[in-house]
Design brief:
alpha+beta; Arc Repressor Mutant, subunit A; OB fold (Dihydrolipoamide Acetyltransferase, E2P); five-stranded mixed beta barrel; 18 helices
């Protein structure tokens, strides 16, 4: 019986030295025999159902926190309530914090929360919380617009973190004027009956000035923009040494090879290039073919792919001022028409960039494939290359479509072979379980003054997929190589969705009319996503799948990457713009030529790297944070530029798709700008509205009209709130024919908990206002 493992598991987890690990690793640590693995995993699952253990990030097994008090991160809502996301998993999950129980916490604060039982929901205990202590502030500086009303000065903060105004005692301290964008430091946070107070520490400029919106976001996210003098001096010294060198005898010379780079139109830092040769004599780089050759059978080599990555480790040695500055930034941040680079431009846009016709130092991964796209072998080398041609994605797509545009035969032939191999690799990875979400990216173009030129769906031709497939293959090959050496390194991990998330997703899909098995697998997800492709609800359901997954992050844990169906994955291919990749390049240099250790030698190497692994864990957490910070800043700036466009379209209508359902309204996406706007429940019409966020539905009690995820809805732009980054919408036709429920849906709804919200028509609101 699996219960025989209970005491051993709990005792092991209670050890103060225990570090959370996945069930497979836990089984090895406990010395569980192979024949007993099934019972052991059943025991872990049984303990989880009993609430005696929980699965944390990366599905690691750990003891639940005590139910009395929980530490976590607070997420606030403009309506006064919020949620606490526990630092470690608990049996009750995220805690709802009602108005009046938030203390003076704001979004991003680390807090201590008292757990309070709130009855039952769906037959299970429901918990809430009350914040009792602010452990650490998420931020103390905010950016916003300085306002004056009746002699009272205050700053209205931008974004979603702090919703209340910050009152200013001395608005003239930095010569700021009403309408200016300023940086304010809070010395009293808002609480019940007491507004926030702060002092202006920097005047950015008038809100209408060119570039002020970008500068505001840079300050809001505390993105570093200045370089220490010592770091710049090191960068220029590295450039001089490279330019003075006349030969690189320790590197494999590939300067005569046909190699191309493919990047976006505005890219300046080209850190990856591609070569490809056929091994059956029928393509570029293969031996001369004399007469007919038979097609190689599966298992015989057909292609050798060369992925050439700029060797930044040569120019940025560990431990110097330049290295510290790059580690502090952690990643480049890409805004429309503006980049905050991880490395100084003399490196990122200069000697590290694989510019056309220029000799450049690389670390190259050679991968051999058979006709089915299976990897037959891998070799990693220090090389020197000279890019034959730089192409944009648009140019590459045109060539693949038969429009050569005067391009040489070698380039055209190479692109054709690249497309063939990429399609074979893509099919192999899909068969292995790779999950591909159909979520188009937003592309925003601005001019030199920061004015928005256009916004819409980014181009996504197969030329993008070619590079994506090759980069994934190179990243995976390097990770496999390092794992084989038994050394710790920073991986890019994406844990499998937990059971509860998959159950919630299955409920949502079934409520949206998509036939869904009770237990979802990766294969089921692929089939479901393919079944809704090109349907109106496709985006909403793809988004729901994305939300069901855990976030990808950097970690030293040997977890794998669920979405890519990869057992071992790391970031290697972008060292110009990601510090994690630079650490991999340095590790490759240290281990270049090292044979894989076996037995005791492997254990000694891993043990000797213990201190390094701890440092890598700390660095992984830091890099995950700066990566998320960069993504948030980039996305917020794009959102702001789109809202600026839409501010001139108030009153106009569009047909969008419902992408989310909350207790306070529906989110509807603009089909052109891919931006979600909010339709508040009270604007849905005169009815009592039952809101079921679990199944993504809102139903009128009287009208029986139903709104649900994936449904098309005609809406009108009612308001654009630039400071709050919010688009407010109202339905265009509230008398539209209701969506009918099936009897099965009606029975299911009677068994589900819902929130009832009163909505009123615009006419009744006006009457009510006159009576008051």
């Amino acid at each position: 019986m699996p219960t025989r493992f209970f005491d051993r598991i709990i005792s092991f987890l209670n050890n103060p030295e225990y570090e959370p690990m996945r069930p497979q690793r836990l089984a090895r640590a406990l010395g569980i025999a192979s024949a007993e693995q099934g019972d052991f995993h059943d025991a872990v699952d049984a303990l989880r159902r009993l609430g005696r253990v929980v699965l944390g990030s990366n599905n690691a097994v750990m003891l639940p926190q005590p139910r009395g008090e929980v530490s976590g991160t607070f997420r606030g809502n403009p309506r006064g309530f919020g949620f606490v996301v526990p630092d470690e998993p608990t049996v009750h999950g995220d805690l709802f914090i009602p108005p009046g129980s938030t203390l003076d916490a704001v979004t991003g604060d680390k807090v201590l929360c008292r757990v309070v039982r709130r009855g039952k929901r769906a037959g299970k205990p429901s918990f809430g919380g009350q914040i009792v202590k602010i452990i650490r502030r998420g931020q103390s500086r905010f950016v916003g617009r300085l306002c004056e009303e009746g002699g009272v000065w205050f700053v209205q903060p931008d974004g979603h973190v702090l919703h209340a105004p910050i009152f200013i005692a001395d608005a003239t301290a930095k010569a700021a004027r009403a309408g200016d964008q300023v940086v304010v430091e809070i010395f009293r946070y808002p609480s019940e009956g007491k507004p926030a107070q702060g002092a202006i520490v920097e005047r950015l400029g008038a809100s209408s000035d060119a570039g002020i919106d970008l500068l505001s976001i840079i300050r809001q996210y505390e993105l570093p923009t200045e370089w220490p003098e010592e770091a710049l001096a090191e960068a220029h010294g590295a450039v001089s040494r490279f330019q003075e060198a006349t030969a690189w005898p320790d590197r494999e010379d590939l300067t005569d090879l046909t190699i191309i780079t493919i990047d976006p139109d505005d890219a300046r830092d080209h850190d990856d290039a591609i070569s490809l040769r056929r091994l059956d004599g029928r393509g570029p780089g293969g031996p001369v073919s004399r007469g007919r050759r038979s097609r190689p059978e599966d298992g015989e080599p057909r292609w050798e792919l060369g992925v050439h990555i700029a060797d930044v480790s040569v120019f940025v040695p560990a431990g110097g001022a330049l290295d510290h500055a790059a580690a502090e930034r952690g990643t480049s941040v890409y805004f429309p028409n503006h980049v905050i680079p991880m490395l100084p431009e003399v490196l990122s846009n200069g000697v590290c960039s694989l510019q056309e016709g220029e000799p450049r130092l690389c670390k190259t991964v050679f991968i051999r494939y058979d006709t089915a796209g299976r990897v037959l072998g891998t070799r990693i080398a220090n090389t020197i290359i000279r890019s034959t041609r730089h192409l944009t994605y648009r140019q590459a797509s045109a060539i693949l479509e038969g429009r050569r545009g005067g391009m040489s035969a070698d380039i055209v032939s190479l692109l054709g072979e690249m497309e063939k191999l990429a399609r074979v690799i893509q099919q192999r990875r899909l068969a292995e379980g790779m999950v591909v979400l159909d979520l188009p990216e937003l592309e925003v173009r601005v001019d030199a003054e920061g004015r928005t030129i256009s916004a819409g769906r980014a181009e996504s031709s197969f030329s993008h997929t070619i590079i994506e497939m090759f980069m994934i293959e190179a990243n995976e090959a390097v990770a496999r190589h390092l794992r084989g050496l038994g050394v710790p390194f920073i991986r890019r991990i994406h844990p499998e969705p937990d059971e509860e998330s998959l159950e919630s997703l299955a409920r949502l899909l079934r409520a949206s009319g998509v036939p869904t098995p009770r237990t979802l697998t990766a294969a089921d997800l692929r089939e479901l996503l393919e079944s809704v492709r090109n349907r109106p609800e496709s985006y909403a359901l793809n988004l729901a799948v994305l939300k069901s997954m855990q976030l990808a992050e950097y970690s030293t844990e040997d977890v794998g990457h669920f979405a890519l169906a990869s057992e071992c994955y790391a970031h290697f291919t972008s060292p110009i713009r990601r510090y994690a990749d630079l650490t991999i390049h340095r590790l490759l240099e240290q281990t270049m030529g090292s044979p894989p250790p076996i037995g005791k030698a492997r254990r000694r190497r891993v043990a000797a790297a213990g201190d390094t692994e701890k440092a890598l864990r700390d660095l992984s957490r830091r890099l995950s944070y700066v990566s998320r910070r960069a993504e948030s800043a980039e996305q917020e700036y794009k959102t702001l530029k789109v809202l600026q466009l839409l501010s001139g379209q108030v009153g106009e209508s569009f047909r969008g798709v419902i992408t989310g359902v909350t207790n306070f309204g529906l989110f509807v996406q603009h089909p052109t700008y891919l931006l979600d706007g909010l339709v508040r429940v009270e604007n849905l019409g005169d009815d009592w509205w039952e809101v079921d966020t679990r199944s993504g539905c809102v139903i009128g009690e009287r009208s029986r009209r139903m709104f649900r995820m994936g449904q098309l809805l005609d809406v009108q732009i009612a308001q654009v709130d630039l400071a709050a980054r919010q688009l407010i919408l109202v339905p265009v036709d509230r008398s539209a024919k209701p969506v009918r429920q099936t009897k099965r849906e009606q029975r299911a709804r009677r068994l589900r908990p819902t929130a009832r919200v009163r909505g009123r028509s615009e006419e009744k609101r006006k009457i009510s206002k006159r009576r008051k």
